[in-house]
Amino acid sequence: MKIYNTLTRKKETFKPLKKESINFFLCGPTVYDYIHIGNLKTFTQFDSIVKYLRYKKFKVRYIQNITDIDDKIINEARKKNKTPKEISEFYTKAFLEEIKSYNINSVDKYVPATNHIQEIIKQIQTLVKKGYAYETEDGIYFRVSRFKDYGKLSHQDIRKIKQGARVEINEKKENPIDFVLWKKYKVGEPFWNSPFGKGRPGWHIEDTAITEYYFGPQYDIHGGGEDLTFPHHEAEIAQMESVSGKKPLVKYWMHTAFLNLKKEKMSKSIGNTINAKSLKEKYDPRAIRYLFVSNHYRTPIEFSQESIEHAKNSLDRLDDFIRYLKRSKEKDNPSIIKKTKKEFIKSMDDDFDTPKAFAIIFEFIRESYKHGGSKESLKFMKEIDQVFSILNFKESKVEQKILDLIKKREEARKNKDFKTADKIREELKQKGIILEDSKEGVIWKFSS
What we know:
alpha/beta, 16 strands, elongated
């Protein structure tokens, strides 16, 4: 198996730190609003990646943080005349409900940052003691000049980073690119007691405190959107490698590409976002999930009505195939299944090449229609859906009513009551159901 590593900018043979055991961390949401579909793309694609690793029999411990204290949460609380805790709890609950709709269920543990304040304080104390951090009147800051590898993940020269362009302007800092570890208390803001006085953690330090607590100073994979590479992930490396003295913090860094809307990156700061809650009210969440998992995680996706329709049509083809296999009396072709499985694994082992994997699946569908398929082919489709979580193998109440009508039509045809048979066909057509009489029996599908 090969994984593209952002740190080295190349595909590398995947070797976990411990044989067959993987510690995997993904940056989660800041809970001050509903997650937007750019976030959803990242969470969905990593859900499928983790499921594939488990499909390959790796024991994956998959953790995601929840940023439940942040300037954005405090500002939203002020706007709505609520406490930051009320805001974070409301949107945390909304987040966990939304991801269920999209079959995102591989995460072992969601960890709120405020559950690990003591671990955060301990890391900051270590950084201060080692000379990697210093105190000002408004907080504790990381001294970037002490960490010579800063910039190694994002592959940029830190001397060329302009103050105010990608870092916060603060005259109290020794260096414009130094980043905050602890923010000192301001009236009306939440706070925790610490050796440096009342205050709250900065954004970057929460992740390293959490990962050190669960994984230790080094672990296998860290994921996130590519917009987090700098400064967030760069800061994580600087913090943890300075605390522990061990390199690397993470063996493989994985980043998803942007989701674009009208050729622009989808971002709350730009104001061109669509939230996941409103999206599922308009579209089938399975179609949205298909759109994300069928595209490579490192390839940008243009979100549009056209891309959704294409995903829906592809999903319809998959649903039709599942219905065909359920009713087929044709013999399976073991050689086709074996060949498909081998090619599927080969494509997924190549940095999770899902577009190629889906091309292989659709070729399998074409071959199965030609040469037959039933129980074993259905079993194989269930097997690969452990990775993608997009297929529907259960008959819904609507589908059961359709099946009952089809059965009634078949009985009418046997009794040469063609008038009733034609009436039922027309009734189903009016409901958007197309019937196809084949040698395997009646195949039905929803009209597009």
